[in-house]
Amino acid sequence: MNNDSKVAEAREDDVTGMIESRTSQIPSSAYLGAALGSMAAAAILRIAGKKHASLFVGQWAAPFLLMGVYNKMVKQHGSDAESHQTA
Questions:
Q1: Distance between CA 4 and CA 9 in Å, rounded?
Q2: What pLDDT digit, counting tens, does each position of 37-52 carry?
Q3: Residue 66, SS3?
Q4: pTM here?
Q5: CB-based contact 31:75 (threshold 8 Å)
Q6: Exposure class string for 47-76: b at 16+ Cβ within 10 A, else e
Q7: Integer Cα distance of 46 and 61 in angstroms
Q8: Of 61, 66, 85, 65, which Cα lies nearest the Cα of 75?
Q9: What's the CA gap between 82 and 78, in Å, rounded?
Q10: Which of 2, 8, 45, 70 ranks highest by number of CB atoms within 10 Å?
Q11: Do 58 and 39 form a contact (C-beta atoms < 8 A)?
């Protein structure tokens, strides 16, 4: 590994660590609730006859679930996992 990649890796780790420290404070159930809420909102919009809006809002469920999985993985295996295991 050359010196340039070490610098880029350190910068990414700092940014990633900052993001992980903020997102790890959000409970995983919040992401599940957001996904279920978007599905419910999409169903309501569909019943109201707003097909395009319902498709748009319904597509939010998958990203919310993916963010929840990422959040869970960060809590277990993230950049700060070692500090939580030793504490």
A1: 9
A2: 999 999 999 999 999 9
A3: helix
A4: 0.69
A5: no
A6: eeeeeeebeebbebbeebbebbeebeebbe
A7: 15
A8: 85
A9: 8
A10: 45
A11: yes
